[in-house]
Amino acid sequence: MLVLGIDPGLSRCGYGVIEQAGRTPQALAAGIISTNKSNSVAHRLHQLQGELAELMQEYRPTVVAIEQVLFQVNVRTAMGVGQASGIAMATAIQAGAEVFEYTPTQIKKAVSGWGAADKAQMSKMVQTLLRLPKPLKPVDAADAMAAALCHLAQSPQTGLALPRFPRQDSPSPTAP
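^ thats the sequence. predicted structure below, dont judge the formating
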C-alpha cells in the first residue's frame, strides 16, 4: 500500500509518501509545497493543485490521508487550510486514490500513543518509526508523514502495529 499524507495549508502544504511492504513502513518522499503570498488565492490554489497532481502521478498512492483542521484562531488561516484541503481531496479522487481524513488528536494518538503530544514529540516519533537519520524539516512534512502513519495504523489491510512508547511526561508503568 502506498499512502500520501497531507498536512494542508495554502502557504505551506506538507506532504509525505510512505510505502507499506509487510509490517515495515518506508518513507519515499517528504517535503512542502509553498505558494507565494503575493499571488491571488485562485492562483495559489491552482499551483497547489498542479503540484499535488504531479505528486499523485509520480507516486500513484492508493490512499491519501489528510489532517483535518477542527479549530483555528485565525479565520483567514482556517479558510486557506480548508481550501487547500478541498484541493487535496479533489486531486486525490481525480487520481483514483481513496481519501481519509484524520483529526490531529487521532494522528497524535496513533503515532505517539498520546492525543496531546506536542510537535517535538511527534517529529521524534515520525523519525523513529520511519528509521530516518534526522527529524524531517519543516514540521509540515513531519505532520504529513504522521497523517500517513496514522492511516497505516488505522487500516486493517496493513497489519501495521506501531510500537507504543510511554509518554515522556508520565511515570513509567512500573512506578508506584
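The beta strands are 2-7, 12-21, 24-34, 63-67, 98-102.
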